[in-house]
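User: Quick one: structure for sequence A, then sequence B.

Assistant: Sequence A:
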Amino acid sequence: MAKKGVTMQQLNYLKQDEKVPGREPFVTYVDFQVQDGSADMWLYDIFPGVQLMVANFATESCFRDSERQNVIEINHCRKGRFECVFDNKNYLYLGEGDIALNNQMHPPIASSFPLNYYYGSTIIMYPEVVKTVRELQVFEISVEKIVEKYSLKIGSCVFRRNMEIEHIYHELYTNLKHPSLTFLRLKVLELLYHFQFRQTVFEEKQEYLSGTTVKRIKHAREHLIQDMEHRINLKDLAWEHNLSPTQLKDGFKQIYGVSPYAYLRNYKMHLATRFLQESDRKVSEIALELGYQNPSKFAEAFCAVIGCSPSAYRKKKEMNGVVNESATITFK
């Protein structure tokens, strides 16, 4: 349902979704449908031709084929990881705090969430409309200059977390519960200023991974979690999947955000939360199944990942169903 009296710009890949007016006249909820999991998406009309899209996904993928569109997007990952595949079969990854700039004239051909969850935002700009926006003219914000600066006519680019710009994004996200249009306008203008004029916004540019390398690393990940009772040697794992140890370590971190061993520990601990919730098995039994001969070592790892001891987690769940936020992460 569209807002009365308002002509809202739309991304082509969202046209099929129902639009529900929010409590504020500049907010729209998008009923974005995913095949497996859940999705929440909000659109904030910041200026004519400028929107802020905030998305919260608990699913493996939200990809839809989309036709080319003259739209510039600046994406920021708040939590989780995002995988994007382009025409050249190369993969880009967006991790927590990372920023990706892209032009929908060169849309991706596939995308997914390696950790099965994602929360982040996108500044959407429609160049032909933005030209006429007085507020952006006053601050000399130009979509054309941003496109030129980051070579967006050629492809997309991803940059690592930067604390200066993270501060601005933190203020933006904390305002979303009770949004103020004036405040959001100030934050978006501040971000666009940094993207266009500052030379120290980004610390390090991320590189593409080839499709072949990604496929091998994902197979290695499957191998890693198949036998959790034994510690796998990473050199052997790399060799079995035609990778060098450096390729495995660096590529794994780029895809999943952590080292192979850190990922395996996180995977085990979130699996343990399921065992604690769904059974009355002893903690020592769960520890042994997950490869921990020493229950105290298991408890130490569990606390580091989940934020409390296994027994405290089970007790808290039994009492009121309240668990640590990190335990809601889904690993498959």
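Sequence B:
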Amino acid sequence: MNVVHVPVLVNEIVEFFKHIHGVFLDCTVGLGGHAEAVLTRIDNSVVIGLDIDDEALDFAKKRLERFIEEGRAKLLKSSYVDAARVLKELGISQVDAILMDLGVSSMQLEKAERGFSFNRDGPLDMRMDRQQTLTAYDVVNFWDEEALRKIIFEYGEEKRYARRIARFIVRNRPVETTKQLVEVLAKAIPDKYARKRHFATRVFQAIRIAVNNELENLKKFLAQVPGMLRPGGRIAVISFHSLEDRIVKEFFRTCSELKQLTKKPITPEEAEIRLNPRARSAKLRVAERV
């Protein structure tokens, strides 16, 4: 598959990082777009890139091959939750900048067999790390109705129909594929409701967050940031839904070792959204280690 990867808010990221010369920790290197921009546009930069998706890492390694050969980039399979341990193993006490892009990559969305997209029929998978055991199939088919209601309500932020959706899922088991799940959701959600966005968006988001334990992992990682980031260093986080953004906002606000550089999140300009519609929900927050 020919994947076209357009990194989100890349110019804004470079602008915040342009004066930093040193080691950049890209916690979610994905397909390597932000890392490539840093390495290309910021002098004397070195990138340590982490990701738990083997396919994304293989793609990024090819994209950043010349920088890897020059010794300016090192890509490793690891969750960002384990970033402090990885840095310690590399003999790095602190880094000069940290970048996180919490979005689902183009490759993950475009490949039907990954099960992330409600627009493509594939198995209910949704694992970022395909070596883990829990899948979307397990959540949809084996979690009880109350557990489903809770994640749809909390992670999907579906306040009105969470219980009804959970009940329909349980009644229509087994649900084997993303297409079948969308068909169940179409029955559960009234036609007149939530048509501004696709009716399956919130439920797919909720299941993906549950499968990958995304919110708890983000909290665990942020707690480690002050110890990993040198004074004067910066952290930039791009989130794509309000739950993540709220966690980042609160941490930046309450952490005494960080100074917020973005009181309000930076969002893409209209020109970027026209070129890359998936960027429309992106929010960037940046803080500096004091």
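The chain has a mean pLDDT of 95. The radius of gyration is 19 Å.

User: Thanks, that's what I needed.
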